[in-house]
Amino acid sequence: MTGGAEKKGQVDRLPGLETRLFDIPEDKFIEVVRLLERVRDHPDVRQTFAAIRPRLVQVRPNRRPTLKRVLCMPFEDVLESFSGVDVPLGRIERRVIDPVWKLVTECGDTALIDQLDRQVQETAPGNLNALRNIGRRLWPMAAQAIRGAVEQDGARHALWRVLHGDEDLQRQVLDVAAFLEIGLTVESLKDALVPKPLPAFEDEHVGVIEQAVQAVARQSTGLVYYLLLVAASRMANPADLLTVLNDLDFGKARCEQPVIFAQLSGLVVTNLEERSARLDGNGYSAGPGVAAAAIAPEEAIAIAERLVASVNTTSAVMDFLAEPVYRERLEAVKTAVRTMVTGTVLDTASGGILTAVAAPAGNGRPAAVDEDAQAAAEDHARALRRCEGLADALGLHEPLKTAMTSMEKGLMARAHALLAQYPKAAGDPDDAETAEINLFYALRLLELVAGPAKADQLRTAIMAATGEFAEE
Predict the structure, then answer these.
(1) Where are the alpha helices (DSSP H) in 278-396?
(2) What is the DSSP letter of 283?
(3) Residue 2 scores a pLDDT above 90
(4) Measured between alpha carbons, how far is 262 from 456 in angstroms, rounded to an integer?
(5) How far apart are alpha carbons 180 and 215 in whole angstroms?
(6) Under a CB-based contact definition with an 8 Å cutoff, are residues 391 and 397 in contact?
C-alpha cells in the first residue's frame, strides 16, 4: 500500500514539473529531460514532453535516440513546425507519426524491429552515423509495410482502424512511405544543404541536388518529387529552387521534369497562401482555426521579409514562364502580409515606442527607468525602420511615412519635456542620474527612428543641459 501510494504521489506531482522546467538552468533542464526519457511511455511523461516542447526546440539537447525517432529522420524536414510560423513544402502533420509507427510495428518485420530497437538503445545520443546505419535497414522495411497496408486487401482493415478512415491522413502516410524509400539519399542531401535554413543558394548546392536527383531517378522517377521537397524545405527561401529547376539534369527522370516543375510551382504558391492565411492584424496563428497570437514587431518583420522574398522570387519565375494564373494569388499573399505588418508594427508604434519615454512626474522627480520597456521599444523602433525595405513590395510608403513622422515628433516632444524638468532633478545625485538615463534612452529611440542626424539636435540640447555629456 505504501509503495503504491508513493508511486501515485510521484505521478500526481509530475504535471507540476512542466512549469518548473521552463525556469531551471539549461544544464539541469537537459539532465531532467534525459531522466524523463527513460520512462517516456508513461502518459504523464508524454504530456510533460508535449508541454515543454517549446524549450526542447530552443535548447535542442542530444536526446536519447528511439527507433520511432530514427523512422522520422528522412521526412523530419517536412514535418510541420511546433510554432506554425514556417510551413514546409509538402508539409507532413505531426499527427501522422503515431499511426505510421503503429502500421510499421503491426505490419512490418517484427524480428527486425526488435533487433533494431536493441541497437538503438545501445546507441549514444548524437551518434548520427550509427542511427543512419540502423535506418538503412529500417526505412525500406517500413516503406514496404506501409505500402502493403495500403495496397493489400488483407491489411486494409488495419490501415482503416489506425487511420480512422481519414483520407488526408492516408495521403500523408503514403508520402511518408515515399520519403522512407529514399531515406539514405535524403540523409546525404541534408549533410550538403547546411545550415538549415540555407541562407544562400550557391552553385555547389545546385550540383549536389542534381546528383541526388539522378540517384533517386535511377531508383524510381516517381520519387524525385519527394527529394526536391526536402531540398526546398532546407532553404530559407524555398522558391529559390524554382529558379534552377529547369536547368538541372534529371537523368532518368527527364521526361517527368516539366510535370515535377509544375507540381512544385503550384505547391510553392499554395504554401505561400497557407502561410499568409495564418496572418492577421494581430499576429500569426499556429494553424487553421487557431486564433492569431500577438507577436513582437521584429518577429513580425522577419516573417514578412521571408514571405515577401518568396513571393518576389516566385513572381519572377512565373513571369518568366508566362504563368499569369498565379499573379493574383501572389498579390493576395502580399495583401495579407501588409495587413499583418500594419497591425503589428505601424499601428502599435505609439504604444510600443512612445510610452517607453516616461512622462515627467508632477512632483518634479524623474520616473524610475523601465529597462524592459526600453528594450521592447528599441526592438519596435528597429522593426519600424526595417519596414522601409518592404515598402515598395507592400505599398507601405505613405502609412510608414506617417508612422515615422508621428514617432519623431512624439519622441522629440517627450524628450524636451524631460529636459525642461531636468533642473528640478539636478540637485539630487540619484534623481539626476535617473533623469539623465531617461534622457539618454529617449535619445536612443529617436536615433533609431529618425536617424543620427536628427538625433544630434537632441544630443546637443542634452549636453548643454546636463554638462556631464559635454565633459565626456
Answers:
(1) 297-320, 327-341, 349-353, 371-386, 391-394
(2) E
(3) no
(4) 55
(5) 15
(6) yes
Q: CA 421 to CA 438: how far, in whole Å?
A: 11
Instruction: Give the type of residue at 19.
Output: T
**Pairwise CA distance, residues 257 & 34, whole Å:** 46
Q: Does the pLDDT of residue 4 top 60, yes or no?
A: no
Q: DSSP string spanning 4-36?
A: HHHHHHHHHHHHHHHHHTTTS-HHHHHHHHHHH
Give the torsion sign (CA, 414, 420, 424, 426).
positive
pLDDT, tens only, 17-44: 656 776 777 777 777 777 777 666 677 7
Name the nearest CA neighbour of 93 among 235, 292, 287.
287
Share of the chain above pLDDT 90, in %: 57
Cα separation, 72 vs 76, in Å, equals 6
User: Per the structure block, which three cell numbers stand in for 171?
Assistant: 495521403
Name the β-bridge partners of 79.
92
Which of 233, 227, 152 has its CA nearest to residue 183?
Answer: 227
CB 224 within 8 A of CB 250: yes
What is the spatial distance between Cα 77 and Cα 212, in angstroms, rounded to a whole number? 16
**What does the domain layout of the chain look like in residue ranges?**
1-64, 280-346, 349-471
12 falls in which pLDDT band (50, 70, 90)? very low
Give me 169's grid cell. Answer: 491522413
Cell of 63: 536526446
Q: Averaged over 179-184, what is the pLDDT?
A: 98
pTM for this predicted structure: 0.77
Res. 10 pLDDT band, cuts 50 70 90? very low
Please write down the long-range contacts of 198-207, taking CB distance under 8 Å and 24 or more positions apart: 198/234, 198/235, 198/236, 199/236, 201/235, 201/237, 201/240, 201/241, 201/243, 201/244, 206/244, 206/247, 206/248
Q: With residue 207 as reference, give the H or E element that holds it.
A: helix 203-219
Q: Which of 377, 412, 408, 383 is nearest to 396 (CA)?
A: 383
| Percent helix, strand and coil across the chain, each to the nearest 5 | 75, 0, 20
Q: What is the mean pLDDT of the chain?
A: 86
The answer to whether 337 and 307 are in contact (CB under 8 A) is yes
pLDDT for res 191: 95
Residue closest to 378 by CA, chosen among 293, 287, 297, 466? 297
